[in-house]
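Margin note from the TA: students keep mixing up input and output lines. Inputs are the sequences; the output is the structure of the whole complex. Example:
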Amino acid sequence: MPKRTDINSILIIGAGPIVIGQACEFDYSGAQACKALREEGYRVFWVNSNPATIMTDPAMADATYIEPITWQAVEKIIEVERPDAILPTMGGQTALNCALDLEKHGVLAKYSVEMIGANADAINMAEDRDLFDQAMKRIGLECPNAQVAHTMDEAWEIQAELGFPTIIRPSYTMGGSGGGVAYNKEEFEEICTRGFELSNNHELLIDESLLGWKEYEMEVVRDKNDNCIIVCAIENFDPMGVHTCDSITVAPAQTLTDKEYQIMRDASLAVLREIGVENGGSNVQFGMDPKTGRLVVIEMNPRVSRSPALASKATGFPIAKIAAKLAVGYTLDELQNDITGGQTPASFEPSIEYVVTKIPRFTFEKFPQANDRLTTQMKSVGEVMAIGRTFQESLQKALRGMETGNDGLDPIVTEFTDETMAQIKGELQAAGAERIFFVADAMRAGMSVEEIFALTNIDRWFLVQIEDLVLTENAVAKRALADFSARELYQLKRKGFGDARLAKLLGVSEKEFRKTRQPAGIRPVYKRVDTCAAEFASDTAYMYSTYEEECEADVSDRQKIMVLGGGPNRIGQGIEFDYCCVHAAFAMRDDGYETIMVNCNPETVSTDYDTSDRLYFEPVTLEDVLEIADKEKPVGVIVQFGGQTPLKLARELEAAGVPIIGTTPDAIDRAEDRERFQVMIDKLGLKQPPNATARSFEDAFAKPEKIGYPLVVRPSYVLGGRAMEIVYDASELENYMTNAVKVSNDSPVLLDHFLSAAVEVDIDAVSDGQQVVIGGIMQHVEQAGVHSGDSACALPPYSLPADVQDEMREQVKKMAVELGVKGLMNVQLAWQDGEIYVIEVNPRASRTVPFVSKCIGTSLAQIAARCMAGKTLAEQGFEREIVPHFYSVKEAVFPFNKFQGVDPILSPEMKSTGEVMGSGDTFAEAFFKAQLGAGEAIPALDGDRKAFLSVREPDKQGIIEVARSLLTLGFTLCATRGTAAAIEAAGLPVEHVNKVYEGRPHIVDLLKNDEIAYIVNTTAGRQAINDSSIIRRTALARKVPYATTLAGANAVCMALEYGREITVRRLQDLHAGASQ
Amino acid sequence: MGHGHHGANHPVQDLDTGTVMITSQNHGFAADEATLPSNVRATHRSLFDGTLQGIERTDRPAFSFQGHPEASPGPRDVAPLFDRFIAMMQARR
């Protein structure tokens, strides 16, 4: 049966900002779905608050709304656009919850909008633990022995039945938010209390513990005629107890017999049928008791999510695209899989002749107070995927693609003492981010596979594979490079060992090793990912490397541009950079080049097989990039769009003769190297905050005399403000130098005078080497000292005088010309007491490029890519800055609620995972919508409302204005002593409240009693921050809105004065007016 | 055949019900549907290349399927053919 003709227009709900549990895989699936539906002639509308997505590019849909994903905002959009149908399965839990809200509030019925892809009943049955449990019983499948609790008393009763350890999971949350494993009564109470608060319907599922069981995921697609196929079976390396997204996973399943696999296959089909997913993709998770083979269904997700994205990349089967077509009425037998050029039907179940390994990436170093053990609550922020012909090869490729400084199974523990053995055993038993390395270390220490199995429950098959790698490494380390025959080196490469790892073991440089390997003829070949294990020819160039005989790369002789991607997502380098890479590929393809993408992040649009002409799914390391460049011989390689990952390869690639286009690696170094940068600033007659570089501990204390406290201190060459702090005096500096960094001649520490209360500005510009055009000026809402990635910002600036903006434009242009920028450049400036200071210059794509592009309606990344390939700005017709006539605000989104005990204060170290955008006629409206989109609660303006104010000394003057606004808005005020005195002195009414150490009742008591509706709390200095962190942590836990900067509090007041009215606007309409 | 069928993932459609089944196959020859005698009708076709995968006698209780419904290794989607065969035997008893 062909597609439905009774619907013409479809609204797709996006996933919103990147958070832990919902990352750019939804951009990937959404973009695919959108393309698929428009291909069929449907009108497609988008709503998504995340500007850094390809799906929200204005050309992707017939109408795009960058608006908060709340049912109220979406209702407004429905009212305007009158879609026939709504597709909620492409935007993760956010979209599903929003769709359910729309249904519940009668919006869908009122405007006769049909939900397609999944229906409310199916979603409810899959998500409601009780209903799901019953459904599974009906089809003879087991769920974990579990019961639902709605009150703490019920929870205790259930616990008594199940014993410890107990697994606790709240209903309707994503990424296992608020869930956990309780081993004792205290933990049980804590996790349950938290879970009740987080669950949409105040409901917890309390499960028997399946810790140590084998865990599997099946990706299933089903059409309305009940045809089903399994796209992929994924096996977890880490057994049950670690969230599947935090587990190392492998596809296809490695340790099942055909019988076991077929039982699981049949079971997953039965689950889809019973739940009633009629047309779309779902995933079903299973646990299997390794002792008895007992199989239980853990859960199923009736939507496209993270693992289907992984499965799509792992098999080449575009789940989101097919699911979108099934949602509009096609059946599997009517669709072709275009990865084989239509040679195979979509009903052809993918089979693969390689092994895929995914490893999650964590950033616990950003949240030192967080519990870094892996549990049922997801904590990873990104992932890397690698493809190899064997598990060993794909594992080792994934390890070096992670960019955590490892080239393979590098040791963590080098000396085996009682103490380190205890550490190793502890790490094996309670998994942290680096468990796999400790497994290898345990083997080096002589522990047997059985001993390690007893502690980890990792299947012995995997352990034996790792043991073989460790034994091989031990043997290699005993010999010299010259002793190896070509045959032996070839065998090592077949096991996936990276050049860098082998070089380290052999005590030679990576280059030396490469110079031995390559002349011996040991070079990778490239195989294609084609869904059919090479049974049929594939003309899609989606490739991975391996060491074998036959190469399927089939290289063309066209002019090629190669784009290097950013690798796994992490805080500081995420979807924004992928967005730029994708746009570079689009622009270069349009200009007639053959485009080649190299990346290893399975969540992204860049690794979709049709984003570029050719996709190499490979680690972005020197070895792997050099081999591809040598095979393809591109005329240009773009390194400045993928963030720090490709950038740090630039010099070595250039030295090896790879043609880097755009801004030269030397110019990039001129901007990043402090001393060279200073020379340039002086030459141009610009200003920098007083600064110095310390190369030793003593050095660091000699410098501040000249610079003056407070200081911003940080190690050189970092992204995302890693280990960056503000210190106010010598004792804090000492603390920092002792605890936070290791200073040395090679890794100096940078000291800058901190510009207190300065206005910070981000500027993105594009240059062709001659002409420079400003992309956008963004004024930060938070003052200097908050990492630019964490600060809200407004485009155009909302309070920066026009002449200051003009002067800033001039300065940026001067620097771009001086550096010879060809492509993008990002500059951070600060304005304090009438002076402009240059904080930082980055001649590369920045985090704000997608936001700016959405604001001005022009893709800066595309223009920059064309500049790099040699087209001037004049030739491209982009010679004038576009200043929009509306305001847009970008707000950062933080993962604090995933990390219990973390202080949510903003600092120079970046902590946000994602961003949202809000637009409006005024700054206040835009800011309000951005807050709404970010899920930051804006205090409600009803009932008795009391605001608590406590600010640091320099803010005592500024708080008065905030206090006055709050009073006008109907708040009553309470404040700590010093702040209260300042407010009283201005003649405003305020109550006193104790600080925590001043005796009870104190502010935390008031918070816990729900007496406070809004908090403004600014602090400075390590001690004061520590003292007050309990206030912010309590506010976070009690969901009380808070501001940790004065500027943030001011903006919130402006938003409150604006009101709560939401006006929705088409991005396309905004842009049409923008250039006027 | 232009290209044989080898794998555990081949989609075959039951022409009477429209059902798609994923099957195990390993063959390089197929009967040409156009040459079937009048007392034999096509019951299954490959969704990959449209070749004939199943036939049935219209005058006798007999049918055949090309592929591996016993499927080890492979999916068990075609297993119901055995039920049908057993049902036919029982009906004749």
